Amino acid sequence: MLSRPENREKLILLIRAFFNRLEGFHVQYNVVSRETLLDAQAHPEKHRDLIVRVAGYSAFFNALSRTTQDDIIARTEQEL
Fold first, then answer.
1. Which end of the chain has fewer CB within 10 Å, C or N?
2. Which stretches are transmembrane (predicted)?
């Protein structure tokens, strides 16, 4: 997603708008690919140290319920 310069610029504008116009004060990112998360579901023994952000806290991905894992995977990739 961020390999293209125009997408990087869109992300920069989005972050600036969040902080400047909406007075945001905090943002958190999961920087892990959808493929890694899917592999962690299929092969949890290979990803014992994978930590993700959930709604306001961090957790080991494989300790989460399948429903929560699926939700995190579904919101992993966003288009700009």
1. N
2. none
3-state helix, strand and coil shares in percent for the chain, rounded to the nearest 5: 50, 10, 40
Of 42, 35, 36, 68, the closest CA to residue 54 belongs to: 68
pTM: 0.70
The letter for the amino acid at 46 is K
Beta partners for residue 60, in sequence order: 51
Q: Domain spans of the chain? A: 5-74
Confidence at residue 31, expressed as pLDDT on a 0 to 100 scale? 82
Cα→Cα distances 64→3, 5, 25, 49, 57, Å: 30, 35, 27, 13, 12
> Is residue 69 within 8 Å of 41, Cβ to Cβ?
yes
